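Deviation from plan, reported transparently: pyridoxal-5'-phosphate complex.
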Amino acid sequence: MEYISTRGYRKDELSFLQVVQMGLSPDGGLFVPKNIPTISLSEIDILQDLSYTDRLFSILQKFELEIENEKLYEMIEKAYSSFHYEKICPLTDISQNRFLFELFHGPTASFKDMALQLTPHFFAASQTDENQKFCLLTATSGDTGIAAIEGFRKLKNISVFIIYPKDGVSSLQKKQMQSVDAKNVTVIGVDGDFDFCQSATKKLFTDIDFLKKVSEKYNTKFAAGNSMNWGRLMPQIGYYFSAYADLLKKKEIVLGEEIEVCVPTGNFGNILGAFIAKKMGLPISKFICASNENNILTEFLKSGVYDITNKPLKKTDSPSIDILKSSNIERLLYWLSDENSEYIQKIFNDLETQQKFTVSEDILQKIKNIISADFCTEEETRETIQKYYKEKNILLDPHTAVAVCVSEKIPSGKKRIIAATAHYQKFLPAVMRAFQKDITDTSLSSLLEIIKEMKPSTPTHPDLDKTMNAKIVQTKSISKDYEALLHEVENFLQKQ
Ligand SMILES: *Cc1c(COP(=O)(O)O)cnc(C)c1O
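Because the crystal trials were delayed, the predicted structure below was used instead.
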């Protein structure tokens, strides 16, 4: 299967393993397969009685990954053996045709594990030159960082360099990253927001002079762990098939019946997995894109105008979706523009130079046909957390609460799955604020005790329990400056 860039860059026969290794295309675009495989309803029907491993294997096999079947199966089995729940990603019925799709049972307690436990296996398969070193360079809004570290740190010839907005992640998210004590991992806080971190890493990936220097001096290439990497995105397609199979198995739907998918969205990677699943043939009639007060996506998906001029990023209780430049929108628009890479190049150039672009009437109509978007305020998020605990004993993390709240604003009679993207324990202070408790000066471990006494339906997370008391070792931070980033990267590579 051949891969191309959304902005037109193509080399003969760019393969899956090559794009996993390259991450971002040299023209700044994102890699996509030239053709999306399809899956029939009868093939979907068969998934019902399979384990998660077998379901995912059936879907990924369709992408002809140049990995032998036996090997692929082994990779998937290994990847999900680190999960704390046999069903990997179960559905919880929250009544009125709504189901929470629990994607947080992996080792770092966010949906990022669903992909990042598997992507490193693909990466390892792509390493053909034993002497070539790699540095996984990743910007994180909080959850990707630790998930990437957990996934990649054990690979040979790879070091991991993570940057995150210093004051833009939860205390436990920070602690997860700061407590990693390994020579080949560095985690650096940036005195800026996630958009700066993401733009700076993207810039580095296409900075030919720096790449050349690093290659010559340190024999190192950069790799990407964000959802701009197709190898990270692909597993996210699979789990939507699994959710559909579970609905079939529970006899909530009949084969072929259309469902809706609601996702708290930042970089548009999770929801794009569902969009691609639909392209492959999964019966999804509508995607609901949920945002917090940083509601650029709501605006864009309703108006067709993506405008980040004079848009300061607000700090919210759902930091993983605090974002202005949502990178996977580029892949969505690539497909909705009928794969018009010249057009994509133009509008994303406009975004760089004018901080703004507008899509055609035709594309806007296509968006409106399949995507509904809305946002909720911080107050509404807190109310939702409180309500679901009081009425159902379910403790939602703030991101999931954003999705649940937005879902309520967009009613329909269809069955709907709502992505539960993180375990509540990652966001204890925010969750406690929803119950109007005064928690200034309360330590994380005291908060955990309070939460345990509340006896929510989902127990605490075994790996997070350990993190709570872990020692902090990574305390470095840098200013919001591209040159400062390059300096730190070089410093780090020198020691590898
Ligand atoms: C990353 C993340 C999101 C956003 O996912 P995207 O793929 O970036 O849209 C939502 N919730 C949580 C908890 C996350 O970690």
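Residues 80-107+231-467 form a domain with the Rossmann fold fold (CATH 3.40.50.1100). We consider this an acceptable substitute for the interim report.
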